[in-house]
Every structure is written in C-alpha cells, then in structure tokens.
Amino acid sequence: MSEDARRRRDRRQQPRRPHLDPVPGLALPAGDDDETAAAPSLRARFEAAVAPGPADGAAPRDAEVARSLAEAPIERIAEVVYGSNGVFLLELDAPDPAAPNEPLRAVYKPVRGERPLWDFPRRTLYLREVAAYIVDAALGLHRVPVTVLRDGPLGPGSVQRYVQVLGEPLTAERAEQLESQLRAVALLDVLINNADRKRTHLLVVNGPSVKAIDNALSFLPYPRQRTALISLGGSPVPARLAKRVRALAGDETRMTALRSRLRRLLSEAEVEAFGYRVAELAADPTYPVLDDWDGRPFEWW
Fold it and tell me: How many Å separate Cα 128 from the centre of its chain?
C-alpha cells in the first residue's frame, strides 16, 4: 500500500467531521433559487453588501487597492471570451501598485452574466467571489487577489485585481517555494468549501507566488469540495497554517466580525456552516479525504 493510500485510509478511520468530510454516495441537494418572496431583491442585497465600504474586510495592505477597484473611473472595458459566464477586463484610472507606470486592471464579473447552476442559488456567484477574498484576508494568507463589489457598466458584480502571470519557466528551486503556498490555497478551499478548484485557477505570478482565482463556486452548507489538490487528502495541515485556523477559531471577536461580513454576502445557513468548518478544522487540522472521482473538478484542459 502506498503512503498516500495509507494516509487516506487512516483518515477515513477517524471520526467524521460533519461539515468537512463528505459522505460517499450521498445524493446532493439542489441549490435554492434565492428568489422567494422573503428574499431581498438583487439591488437591495447589493446595496447592503457595499454599505460598509470597499476596504471593510480587506487586508490592511490591500485597503487602497480595494478602494481603487471599487471607485476609480473605468477607462476601458473588454470582454474575456473564454469562460462559462460573462467576464470582462477593466482598465481603471489608477496606478497598479506593482507597476506604478501601468494602469490598475481588474476582472469584472457582473451578476447579469452568471449562468444558472443546479446546485448554487441564482445570482450569488459574484457575492461568493468577494466572500472568498474576505476569508483569505481574515486568515492573512494573501492567496486571493483583492476582490470587491462594484456597480459596473453592466450592473452589480465582483471586481478582482488582475494579476500578471509569470512569463518565464520556473527553476526547480523556485518551484519548491510554491509548495507551502499551494497548501495554503488548499486550506482556504477547505474552509470555503470550494467545489471547483481547477489547476487553471492557480496562477503563478512574480515572486514566485501562487494566486487563487475563480472562487465563486464555494460556501455551500454541506461538504462539496472538489479540487485539483486532492492528493493532500488525509495529510496534516502544516503547523503554521493550523496555528492561523486555531487563532481565528479561538478569537470570538474576529469570528463575530467575519460572520457579520459574510452575512451580507451569503445565506445564514452558509455562514453557520462556515463557522463549523473553522471549528472542526481547528480541532482536527487534517485535509479532508475526497472521493477519487467526485472530489475532482472537471478540467477543460
């Protein structure tokens, strides 16, 4: 038996964590349409979510960029033709902090461009993009590019800082530097219950550094994780990352503030499930073992 197989077997013999560990063969519920009479309108929900300002929940070092993404005038807009939803590239009248002589660019995903999905509530993907960044910022991982809400040319949507992919091959030594960052992404995906972590959603930028994009299919209230990093299942979360999770779980003030921010973006059931995932991973910091088939995302290439 290989070491990976032994590790996965041992994890399955441990008590199941109800909000982290999937039940093999369990039929999955369909997503609510989020359009009941009691549900707020799209405009009302958007206005409530943006009311605290774009820097609310942002990492301190990201605050200025967050404000620029939400408020800087749009100079140009172009459609990104590849993708299942409507996606646009914005060029803003603000400098890029990483290249002050270049304009700040951003990826804009308007809610009106979202295709309905059977397992996610309609018109909520743009909110989930922002929720993923807020959790990343709360943990201090810095793997998700700054993401905010904005009322753009095509209406409300998410706006995420555009990152330039590294244009040169990595040496073996530099590639090794990315291992710990990939484990940090895997940790984030466990906590946000990411159901679609493809390899193409992991970008290597200058540093080298790993950035995780396309985080919308997250935060369902039942275990639904699918990831290209499935081989980590059953392995322990690195000590420095586990320490961050325990620190967050044990700080009621931080957790209360984080839940409050997430409630503006997610349903109450989703926020409650997120809290349970934080607590369960803090108590048992091990990556979940996922099904070899159902735990993998569909990769286009």
Answer: 7
Domain range list for the chain: 32-283
Per-residue confidence (pLDDT) for residue 39, from 0 to 100? 61
Residue whose token pair is 């999955």: 28
Measure Cα distances from 17 to 70, 222, 223 in Å. Answer: 38, 11, 10
Tokens standing for residue 269 = 């059931």
Find the Cα–Cα–Cα–Cα dihedral 151, 154, 155, 159, rounded to 10°.
Answer: -40
b/e per residue 38-76 (b: at least 16 CB within 10 A): eeeebeebbeebbeeebbbbbbeebeebbbbbbebebee
The end-to-end CA distance of the chain, in Å, is: 30
- pTM for this prediction: 0.93
Region 200-218 average pLDDT? 95
For 2-55, the pLDDT digits (tens) are 777 777 777 778 899 999 999 876 666 766 665 544 567 899 999 999 999 999
**Between 177 and 262, the higher pLDDT residue:** 262
Nearest to 235 by CA among 4, 12, 20, 24: 4
Q: Which of 98, 80, 128 is nearest to 266 (CA)?
A: 128
pLDDT at 176 over 70: yes
* Nearest by Cα to 264 from 58, 114, 23, 44: 44
- Interatomic CA distance for residues 111 and 149, integer angstroms: 11
For 96-104, what is the mean pLDDT? 92
The answer to whether 58 and 120 are in contact (CB under 8 A) is no
Bridge-based pairing of strands 155-161 and 202-205 is: unpaired
> CA–CA separation, 92 vs 114, rounded Å?
23
Q: What is the mean pLDDT of the chain?
A: 92
Closest CA to 136 of 42, 208, 211, 26: 211
Question: Tokens representing 126?
Answer: 């743009």
